[in-house]
Write a structure and sequence with these properties.
Distance between the termini: 14 Å
Structural class: alpha/beta
Strand order of the largest sheet: 9-10-11-12-13-14-15
Order of helices and strands: EHHEEHHEHEEEHHEEEEEHEEEH
Helix content: 10-25%
Number of helices: 9
Strand content: 25-35%
C-alpha cells in the first residue's frame, strides 16, 4: 500500500462560523483572520494505492460552479485535484473508488464535472465507484434548511444517474471495517448525518482522515465546534470520545481543512486532550 496527500485547492471561510460560540480573541490565536474575518482553509484529500485499487477520499470543491459561487469562498493558491494526481503519476481515469466522507460541496464537488459540451454534468471519475451511505444520501437529497446550501443537486444526482453510486452497508455500531475498501470507518452524526471517517492502518500507524470532526488543529479543544454543525452537543460527545482514543493510541490525524498543517498528534494534559505535534505527510511517511 502507498498513500499520497492530494491538495485540491484552498479557500477562505468566516472564522466565526468555523468556531461557533468561541470568541475571536481565542480562536484567532491558532487561526488568524484577515480584515474580512476570513480564515485560511484547505481542501486536502487522500489517495490510497492498494493492489489494483486506487481510492480517493473526498474530492474537494471541483471547478464547475459559477464565478459568483466561487467569489463567496475566495479561492487562493494554485493547487488542483488533477495537478495533484499528475504529480504522483495518476489520471482521473485511474481512480477505482471515490469515498465521500459526506456530501457537502467542499468534500464532493470534484466528483462531478461539466460534460464536453457544457450542456450537463457527468462523473469526473468515469471508472470509479462512488461510496456514500444510505442514511447520509437520503439526508443530502432531502436537505434541511440549515444545510440546503451545502448539498448541491448538481454534485449528487449525476453520480446516482451514472449507476456508479454504491452505499456502505448500514451498521448497528459506530464503526465497521469495509471489505471493499480495506479500512475501518467511524460514523459520526454531530456535523451532519452519518459522516464517515476512515481509519487507515499504514506503516505501523493508524492514520485517521478527520474531515469535519476536527477541521484544523485549532478545533482540538472540546468547545471549539463549528457553527455549521447540525448537532453541536453531539459533536462534543463524539469529539471527547475520539480525542481520548486518539491520544491513547497515538493516532495520526490527517487534517482535511488545515491550510498549514497536514498531520497532527495529540496528548493528554491537565486541561484535557491537546495538540502534541504537527508534521508534514512526508516527515511521517518518508
Amino acid at each position: 500500500m502507498k498513500i499520497y496527500p492530494i491538495e485540491t485547492g484552498n479557500f477562505k471561510l468566516d472564522g466565526g462560523a468555523m468556531f461557533g460560540v468561541v470568541p475571536k480573541t481565542l480562536w484567532s490565536r491558532t487561526n488568524p483572520a484577515d480584515a474580512n474575518n476570513l480564515i485560511d482553509m484547505a481542501m486536502r484529500c487522500l489517495l490510497i494505492e492498494d493492489g489494483d485499487k486506487l481510492i480517493l477520499i473526498d474530492s474537494g470543491l471541483g471547478n464547475k460552479q459559477s464565478e459568483k459561487f466561487f467569489s463567496y469562498y475566495h479561492l487562493w493558491g494554485d493547487h488542483s485535484l488533477h495537478k495533484s494526481l499528475e504529480k504522483y503519476g495518476f489520471h482521473s481515469d485511474d481512480i477505482t473508488d471515490v469515498f465521500m466522507t459526506h456530501l457537502h460541496f467542499d468534500h464532493c464537488g470534484g466528483c462531478v464535472k461539466w460534460n464536453k459540451d457544457k450542456t450537463g454534468y457527468e462523473p469526473a471519475f468515469k471508472n470509479a465507484v462512488f461510496w456514500s451511505n444510505q442514511a447520509h444520501w437520503d439526508w443530502a437529497i432531502h436537505p434541511n434548511a440549515r444545510e440546503k446550501a451545502s448539498f448541491l443537486k448538481e454534485n449528487l444526482l449525476p453520480m446516482e444517474e451514472s449507476g456508479q453510486l454504491q452505499f456502505i452497508a448500514p451498521v448497528e455500531s459506530k464503526k465497521l471495517v469495509s471489505e471493499a475498501l480495506g479500512f475501518e470507518i467511524l460514523f459520526v452524526d454531530g456535523h451532519t448525518e452519518k459522516q464517515m471517517l476512515p481509519h487507515i492502518s499504514y506503516k505501523g500507524k493508524t492514520l485517521v482522515f478527520m474531515a469535519d470532526l476536527i477541521p484544523t488543529t485549532g478545533h482540538i479543544p472540546l468547545p471549539y465546534v463549528m457553527g455549521y454543525d447540525t448537532r453541536p452537543l453531539l459533536t462534543l460527545e463524539e469529539k471527547a470520545s475520539f480525542l481520548n482514543e486518539a491520544a491513547d493510541n497515538d493516532y495520526l490525524l490527517f487534517l482535511e481543512h488545515d491550510a498549514h498543517h497536514e498531520i497532527c498528534t495529540l496528548q493528554h494534559t491537565e486541561k484535557g486532550v491537546r495538540l502534541a505535534n504537527t508534521y508534514s505527510f512526508n516527515e511521517v511517511f518518508q
